[in-house]
Structure of Flagellar protein FliL:
Amino acid sequence: MAMGLAVLVLLGVVGYLLLQSRTAKAGAETTAAQAPKTPELYLPLDPAFVVNFQDQDSTRYLQVGVTVMTHDPNAVQAMKDSDPVIRNALVMLFSSQTYTGLSDLNGKKKLQTEALDAVRKIVADKTGKPDVDALYFTSFVMQ
């Protein structure tokens, strides 16, 4: 009889703990869902980038407007403080492209990813974390 009572109490305690852990988990998920999301912050890198590159026998030009997006105000400040470094990295990246490589959508997407990676690295070096969420080409002209 004492053994049966002990098992019953033990089952009650285990049931109570399971119920509490589910309630706590549901409460945490609700709190996370209700937490206000920080607004998106956009930083245009003005003026637009203008570079030239060789394409077989002729010189080609590329003009690219770039805007970066983050949710962290510290990242915006880091990008402003590092503007010459970012612009240099992007000029080097853009001028190393080929006309053929940028002629299709996949080439432009690849360049966009490489540019985002370059900016993230610079921001990470400055702040310790790469808090740049996206990089957008706001204009893209090849001639």
